[in-house]
Write a structure and sequence with these properties.
Chain B: Keywords: Iron, Metal-binding, Oxidoreductase. Chain B: Pfam families: Fer2, Fer2_2. Chain B: InterPro entries: 2Fe-2S-bd, 2Fe-2S-bd_dom_sf, 2Fe-2S_ferredoxin-like_sf, 2Fe-2S_ferredoxin-type, 2Fe2S_fd_BS, Aldehyde_Oxdr_Iron-Sulfur, Beta-grasp_dom_sf. Chain B: It comes from Chelatococcus sambhunathii. Chain B: This is 2Fe-2S iron-sulfur cluster binding domain-containing protein. The complex is a heterotrimer. Chain A is 29% helix and 20% strand. Chain A has 13 helices and 11 strands. Chain A has a 5-stranded antiparallel sheet with strand order 4-5-8-6-7. In chain A, strands 1-3-2 form a 3-stranded parallel sheet, with helices on one face. A 3-stranded antiparallel sheet of chain A has the order 9-10-11, with helices on both faces. The N and C termini of chain B lie far apart (49 Å). Chain B has one domain: Roll (Ubiquitin-like (UB roll)), CATH 3.10.20.30. Chain B is globular. Chain C folds into 3 domains: 177 residues, Aldehyde Oxidoreductase, domain 3 (Alpha-Beta Complex); 352 residues, Aldehyde Oxidoreductase, domain 4; 144 residues, 2-Layer Sandwich (Aldehyde Oxidoreductase, domain 4). In chain C, a hairpin with a 2-residue loop joins strand 8 and strand 9. In chain C, helix 5 crosses helix 6, helix 10 runs parallel beside helix 11 and helix 14 crosses helix 15. The longest helix of chain C has 26 residues. Chain C is globular, with a radius of gyration of 27 Å. Classes of the chains: A alpha+beta, B alpha+beta, C alpha+beta. At the B-C interface, helix 1, helix 2, helix 3, helix 4 and helix 6 of B face helix 1, helix 3 and helix 14 of C.
Chain lengths: 338, 169, 743
């Protein structure tokens, strides 16, 4: 780890000020990704501003019937929270599909949003990487691409976002609350993470010094018609090759509203509102889901080694929508996919 | 070097019940502090990246990877390491169950497995074998003792479950 | 107390268990030393080429830095290769020597060593060392080096090269109707023991106490004495606990060389703990291309076997393992051709990894046998039985024992193999296809000369000792059991010592030979101690045992007594009281019986049965259960023996489904050199494993022991792959069987 100074913030505004005023400063909370990256010399902050003592660890009801989750709520507390389990089981399930129990105990809600890609080359300071060092080139293109993007990649970056929780938040259409040097704002989840384009160094749309303070969920509406289906290279403690968060609101026998987000396939959780709209009024069926999958994956392009992820995603989408439609969500401790 | 040495910070940690006040550099991890400065080498370094679980300790009763914890951030916390659970002559029930079921071979992942299992029981979300397997998957064992680890954990869990899950101590 | 005996043969809890579960067992990185400094290695970022320039100025002035060593300023080291071959497990070629010169042989090779006052400062300063390289294009894919494959001119010591051909496999194959020829490949694997490779050198005024992660303390001792010209009297290697090794810690690695180099230069104690990533630069199971061609008659009898491999090795050494020999001895067949070639790639030298050779070769053979069984429409188990070998046809000897048939039988029964419906894709449960597969495993039952001691100590305890290692295998426990039985003592009164060069000589612990070799050595040492005790008892003034001999006395309850009248006795306390230092010790040496070995071939065998569930649509494979039936002679400890097999099976699950070291082929760098992206099995991947030991009497050594460290993995991956075929009708010949290969 490089040398850095440490500040324990006692208020959100103090933390924001401390980071905003220093381009080399970074917030730290759970540290499960940042400390790891610092050990690899990928992240070299000049100053760490510890926000763990800030009062951002509540889960509160909102007037609109949703919940507002403090940025410092640990992933495991969130996953096991009674209200979240009852009203947002998709979120609970997605969290439990990720990392390990120990990591979930330490990792926070805000930090989960801000975790960085697991691209092999991003982690290897011995190789060029546009995300790590803008303009140095992308080593992944033409290299080992098993874990790389099939959607929304650019010529300068084919990295994926590794979070499971964010895939569920995307499907649930969460809103991110941030506080920055110029005040507070909210960011719809779809606009929070970004595609790499020619600025892959930017994972999201936060300005330097802006801090995630909470994540808000709209009122629950999917009942049991949801699932989080994660496919990976071993049965636990591995990042997704492809994951699907699916939620359906039924209108009689037909689909009223569908929300589907993909993980492991792009620089951000992948959704397509038009494709989702095409499911409205449709009777749930494998063929309808397959048509939807084709639509959602219409722009998919493999990198060679990861070409299989397109077909895997297609099948996973169909299976996940089937689980959601029948109200039999995947249970993460059960390894048999239902 | 031009860059200033960031000042060490005084922190107080309660380690296995004993308060310790130490000056720590910001980049010192809890794991390195335990192993190199407090000589509590029961917490193991297997990857130093949160990818194996060998460094698992209990911080304020919760299991975490100590390799990813900056010690300075844990000021005021209670740390329980494997040494704090029990010694060879007064084993914690989980330690005893691991010996009984031969739930290890080389022993290197073992302190982390045991701290993790104790933490898991406290969390109270593991009831079935599937749940135990999943919730213990953050602790890799290259000797492949998983089935014996499951047996050990199930035995302790069954004893604890007699009335109902309660904080383990 | 005597009714507790014998301990040998029981499920005796691990004697080092309480220390391990309480975190007090000390591993190599965990020894304290005064004035200790910490080293960190700077890994090269290129795989092939030269170091042009090293700028260590920023690192040199970083806080806490004590010294930075590079090839330019390192202490003098011998120029020739010979001193570096003081390694019991060396392979032909020139061993890797860290900081030798500017040449880079593999990615991650240490280019510099930073030594600082703390671990954190060393690690930080290591990132500040700027190394400029002249890079050449590396080749790391053995399949691209196929055309350059060669027969290794020098054969590796102790590794039998393939036996000469017998009969005419080629002509027989060509003339056969029922035949198959396929290529099999197992991706490169790394051992990944949980403990990081580490060395702590305690400097005590020129005397070195070295704690080095090793499978045999004498190997690093010989190596450093040879390389650094040290007086063996001034070097002790002490490694009481080893956090897993699986073959990785057989050879001395650069952590040892560098830590000792630094300690000698600085005259200070030094600790060097490598990173997980750096552990991918020191030995691996080689990427191997295998061709197996089989032919059989209508009756299911094999008529020819051809098995040829091309195995990766480094540019500087010819690593060899017995990969194909098994195909000449597991089944009865008159026409056999075996071949083993190497191809050089720009990586570190491969190394022995759990059942080296057999794991790979038996995967190919047993997958091919499975394929043949479908061509013959024969049950795969039936095919094995039809071709059962009653003798080792490689060298024309009978087996010292071979209860493989019993293993097949009991394994099949426990597994309920008879419930298997023969057609692929014919079994289903819910959404998942169900597959049953089986395979045979085989490993050589080896022994090595070992020394041991046995002593009665002042407190009346028995201490048995041998310079072998316990890498998690249970050596401490079995030696304790053997000692306790020899003296009919409660096991709590017996201490076993291993892992120190002050103890009687033993080679590295590997090849599954430790239990048989160290176990028999301790048994002999106990016998020698009995002789010594009786001799001393006879020599006492007015000794009641004046005319006694070992054959006529019993050793029990702290006394030597006449078997005919146990009231006539001499207590150990009396003998100890008269002994110098209050300790009576005897030594013994065990050597394998050469005559026996000339007459018989000795192998362990296994029958592995696997049930998998496959979600065909999503490519997800789950191993539902495995039954591993083992024929391996006498089992000393049912608990630790079972654990050994469980461990082998779990590693076999990893090999079958997950494990693959991936290189970027352009850069020659391993992209998944960590436990997050190199997937060893996690707890959730392992469900039910049933281990059976069948009775097997063997006379190769007095204990009747054959060894268990390797056999558990052999055949496991093939059984799983065969089960996947049975479930899906898809044959995956390139491991691991990842999701993409089943879509």
């Amino acid at each position: 780890m490089n040398r850095f100074s440490y500040l324990r913030a006692s208020s959100v505004s103090e933390a924001v000020e401390a980071v905003a005023g220093d381009p080399a400063a970074r917030f730290i909370a759970g540290g499960t990704n940042l400390v790891d990256l610092m050990k690899y010399d990928v992240e070299r902050p000049g100053r760490l501003v510890d926000i763990t003592r800030l009062p951002l660890n509540g889960i509160e009801k909102t007037p609109g019937g949703g919940v507002k989750i403090g940025a410092l709520v640990p992933n495991s507390d969130l996953a096991y929270d009674d209200r979240i389990r009852r009203d947002y089981p998709l979120l609970s399930s997605a969290i439990l599909a990720g990392a390990s129990a120990q990591l979930r105990n330490a990792a926070t809600t805000g930090g989960n949003l801000l975790q960085r890609t697991r691209c092999y080359y991003f982690y290897d300071v011995g190789t060029p990487c546009n995300k790590r060092e803008p303009g140095s080139g992308c080593s992944a293109i033409g290299g080992e691409t098993r874990i790389h993007a099939i959607l929304g990649a650019s010529d300068s970056c084919i990295a994926t976002h590794p979070s499971d929780m964010c895939v569920a938040l995307s499907a649930l259409e969460a809103v991110v609350h941030v506080q920055g040097p110029r005040g507070d704002r909210t960011i719809p989840f779809a606009d929070f993470h970004r595609l790499p384009g020619d600025q892959p160094e930017k994972d999201n749309t936060l300005e330097h010094g802006e801090m995630v303070t909470a994540v808000e969920l709209p009122a629950p509406r999917f009942g049991r018609h949801h699932t989080y289906l994660k496919l990976r290279d071993r049965l636990s403690y591995a990042f997704a090759l492809v994951s699907v968060a699916a939620a359906i609101e039924l209108d009689g026998d037909n689909i009223g509203k569908a929300r589907v987000a993909l993980g492991g396939v792009a620089h951000k959780p992948w959704r397509d509102a038009d494709a989702e709209a095409s499911l409205k009024g449709v009777l749930p069926s494998s063929s309808a889901f397959a048509d939807f999958a084709d639509r959602l994956l219409s722009g998919a392009r493999g990198q060679g080694e990861n070409d299989f992820k397109i077909e895997l995603a297609r099948r996973a989408i169909v299976r996940a929508l089937g689980q959601a439609a029948s109200g039999t969500p995947q249970v993460q401790s059960v390894k048999q996919v239902n | 070097m031009a860059q200033a040495q960031a000042a060490a910070t005084s922190v107080t940690l309660t380690v296995n019940g004993e308060p310790k006040t130490l000056d720590v550099a910001p980049w010192e991890t809890l794991l390195d502090l335990l192993r190199e400065r407090l000589r509590l080498t029961g917490a193991k370094k297997g990857c130093d990246q949160g990818q194996c679980g060998a460094c698992t300790v209990l911080v304020d009763g919760r299991r975490v990877n100590s390799c990813l914890q900056l010690a300075v951030m844990r000021d005021g916390c209670e740390i329980t390491t494997i040494e704090g659970l029990g010694g060879p002559d007064e084993l914690h029930p989980m330690q005893a169950a691991f010996v009984k079921h031969d739930a290890f071979q080389c022993g290197y992942c073992t302190p982390g497995q045991i701290c993790s299992a104790v933490g898991m029981i406290r969390e109270g979300h593991a009831e079935t074998s599937d749940e135990i397997r999943e919730l213990m998957s953050g602790n890799l064992c290259r000797c492949g003792a998983y089935t014996n680890i499951l047996d050990a954990v199930e035995e302790v869990l069954a004893e604890r479950n007699a009335p109902k899950l309660e904080a383990a101590e | 107390m005597s009714n507790v005996h014998p301990y040998v043969g029981r499920a005796q809890p691990r004697v080092d268990g309480p220390l391990k579960v309480s975190g007090l067992a000390r591993y190599s990185a965990e020894f304290a030393a005064d004035d200790l400094v910490y080293a960190a290695a700077v890994p090269s970022t290129i795989a092939k080429g030269r170091i042009v320039r090293i700028d260590a100025s920023a690192a040199q002035s970083a806080p806490g830095v004590v010294e930075i060593l590079t090839h330019e300023n390192r202490p003098n080291m011998p120029a020739e290769d010979e001193p570096y071959k003081a390694d019991m497990v060396a392979v032909p070629g020139g061993p890797f020597r860290p900081l030798r010169d500017d040449r880079i042989w593999f990615s991650g090779q240490p280019a510099a060593l930073v030594i600082a006052d703390t671990h954190e400062n060393a690690r930080h300063a290591a990132t500040l060392v700027k190394v400029e390289y002249e890079a050449l294009t590396p080749e790391v894919d053995v399949s691209n080096a196929r055309d350059r494959a060669y027969d290794p001119p020098e054969k590796r010591n102790g590794i039998p090269p393939p036996p000469p051909p017998r009969g005419d496999a080629e002509a027989t194959f060509k003339g056969s109707v029922i035949r198959l020829e396929e290529e099999y490949r197992v991706s490169a694997e790394h051992h990944n023991p949980m403990e990081l490779q580490a060395t702590t050198v305690e400097w005590d005024d020129g005397r070195l106490v070295i704690h080095n992660k090793t499978q045999g303390v004498n190997n690093p001792k010989n190596y450093v004495c040879s390389v650094f010209g040290l007086d063996p009297e001034a070097v002790q290697v002490s490694t009481p606990f080893v956090g897993g090794a699986f073959g990785m810690a057989l050879r001395p690695h650069y952590d040892l060389t560098l830590a000792v180099m630094a300690a000698l230069k600085l005259k200070r104690s030094v600790r060097l703990v490598l990173t997980r990533g750096q552990m991918y630069t020191m030995g691996w199971r080689p990427d191997t291309l295998q061709t197996v061609a089989l032919s059989a008659g209508e009756d299911g009898r094999l008529t020819s076997v051809r098995h040829e491999v091309i195995q990766a090795t480094s540019q500087f050494e010819d690593y060899q393992e017995p990969t194909v020999n098994w195909s000449g001895l597991v089944y009865d067949c008159p026409n056999v051709t075996l071949g083993h070639k190497l191809a050089k790639v720009d990586t570190s030298t491969p190394s022995d990894m759990r059942a080296p050779g057999a794991t790979l070769g038996m995967f190919a053979l047993e997958t091919a046998m499975d394929e043949l069984s479908y061509k013959l429409k024969l049950d795969p188990l039936e095919l094995r039985l039809k071709n059962y070998a009653e003798a080792d046809q490689n060298d024309g000897k009978p087996f010292s024992s071979k209860e493989l048939k019993a293993a097949y039988e009991t394994g099949a029964e426990r597994f309920r193999w008879s419930k298997r419906s023969p057609e692929p894709r014919s079994m289903k449960e819910g959404r998942e296809l169900v597959g049953y597969g089986m395979a045979t495993g085989c490993w050589e039952a080896m022994m090595q000369p070992h020394g041991a001691s046995a002593a009665l100590t002042a407190d009346g305890r028995l201490e048995v000792a041998c310079g072998t290692a316990d890498i998690g295998t249970g050596t401490y426990t079995i030696l304790t059991q053997i000692g306790a039985d020899a003296f009919s003592m409660p096991i709590e009164e017996v201490t076993a010592l291993v892992g120190d060069t002050r103890l009687p000589m033993a080679p590295v612990e590997g090849g599954s030979w430790a239990a048989a070799s160290a176990g028999n050595a301790v048994r002999l040492a106990c016998a020698a101690l009995k002789e010594e005790l009786v001799k001393r008892a006879r020599g006492l003034d007015d000794s009641p045992l004046a005319n006694a001999s070992v054959d006529h006395v019993v050793f029990r309850d702290g006394r030597i007594a006449l078997a005919s009248d146990e009231n006539v006795a001499v207590s150990y306390a009396k003998l100890l009281g008269a002994a110098e230092g209050g300790r009576i010790e005897a030594m013994a040496k065990f050597a394998p019986d050469k005559e026996f070995a000339e007459k018989f071939s000795s192998y362990t065998h296994s029958a592995v049965f696997a049930e998998v569930r496959v979600d065909e649509e999503l490519g997800v494979v789950r191993v539902e259960r495995i039954v591993s039936a083992i024929a391996a002679g006498k089992i000393l400890n049912l608990a630790t023996a079972r654990s050994q097999i469980l461990g082998g099976v779990v590693m076999g699950i990893g090999m079958a489904l997950h494990e693959e070291t991936k290189w970027d082929k352009r850069l020659g760098r391993i992209v998944n050199a960590n436990l997050g992206e190199y997937h060893v099995p996690a707890h959730a991947d392992v469900k039910n494993i049933d281990v059976i030991f069948v009775d097997e009497e063997d006379d190769a050594n007095p204990l009747g022991v054959k060894g268990l460290g390797e056999i558990g993995i052999v055949g496991a991956a093939a059984a799983i792959g065969n089960a996947v075929f049975h479930a899906t009708g898809r044959r995956v010949r390139h491991l691991p069987i990842t999701i993409d290969k089943l879509l």
